[in-house]
Write a structure and sequence with these properties.
By secondary structure, the chain is α/β, with parallel strands linked by helices. The chain contains nine helices and ten strands. Bound molecules: adenosine-5'-triphosphate. Keywords: ATP-binding, Cytochrome c-type biogenesis, Nucleotide-binding, Transport. This is ABC transporter ATP-binding protein.
Length: about 260
């Protein structure tokens, strides 16, 4: 189980490379990425680009490596080999800068259970050097419908409420890239409507996102591109527009069986 600050420690120890800030029109650029756990290969030669401002749905069966890929992009896990760039920043040299560009909503909320909702947001605001963090936290808590729970400890909240605070934490520093691991899990209908409107606002600001889901219908509705992982590789990639759900379901069955 990861601790809330684990990624920060990894970030602070990363060396800075002089050529890390080359301009690029790609939010994500992955080349020859490999990752194994022990002797078990999970990602084998992943090639994947996400243009800035685009939304990508990452699909695949349980254990396909979706979370592993998102964790590498978020700087929580190291690539085995290959290159991973976020907005032109190479993860081998610029983890700290990448962290500033990325908002991650994962299975675990990366919040401190013993701190209150507001204390958590102020802590992360400090970590990300967010200007006027208190005001920003207040706006976001209102946005996710949690302003009345600001003084409650995280451990006193329901799972869906924690998820809402995790959204506020992820959006606090106005990230250009959102990485969302099954953002539609555990939320009620209001929660899903909220997530949908947050995503619309994010993309209206020019932001990009990569999200995982097991709901093919939602994958099509929320994305510009569909990608399916199987056997540690990208086995299918298609624009979402004009891709009928029945066809996606058929292809998904074919490539993941
Ligand atoms: N820290 C770890 N140590 C060892 N193996 C791991 C670790 N994390 C993930 N794995 C393994 O890597 C594989 C990919 O896991 P991952 O969580 O990336 O899959 P996923 O596509 O997100 O699955 P799901 O749809 O079930 O969430 C799995 O076989 C998993 O057991």
């Amino acid at each position: 189980m990861s601790r809330p600050g684990e990624h920060i420690a990894a970030v602070q120890s990363a060396p800075v490379h002089p050529d890390v800030a080359a301009p690029t029109a790609l939010a994500i650029e992955i080349s020859n990425l490999k990752k194994s756990y022990g002797l078990k290969p999970v990602l084998r030669t992943i090639q994947l680009n996400l243009p800035q401002g685009q939304r990508m749905a990452l699909l695949g069966a349980n254990g396909a490596g979706k979370t592993t890929l998102l964790r590498i992009l978020a700087g929580l896990s190291k690539a085995g080999s290959g290159t991973v760039c976020v907005h032109g920043l190479d993860s081998r040299y610029a983890l700290q800068e990448i962290r500033q560009q990325v908002g991650f909503v994962a299975h675990q909320p990366y919040l401190y259970e013993e701190l209150t909702v507001l204390e958590n947001l102020l802590f992360f605001g400090k970590l990300y050097a967010v200007e006027h963090a208190r005001e920003r936290a207040s706006v976001l808590l209102q946005r996710v419908g949690m302003e009345r729970r600001a003084k409650d400890r995280i451990r006193a909240l329901s799972r869906g409420q924690v998820q809402r605070v995790a959204w506020a934490r992820a959006l606090l520093h106005e990230p250009r890239l959102l990485l969302l691991d099954e953002p539609d899990t555990g939320l009620d209908q209001h929660g899903n409507d909220l997530v949908e409107s947050l995503l619309v606002e994010h993309t209206a600001r020019g932001g990009s996102m990569l999200f995982t889901t097991h709901n093919l219908d939602r994958a099509l509705a929320w994305s510009d591109q569909i990608v399916i992982l199987a056997g540690g590789r990208v086995v299918y990639q298609h624009e979402s527009a004009n891709l009928p759900l029945a066809e996606l379901q058929q292809r998904y069955r074919e490539v993941t069986q």
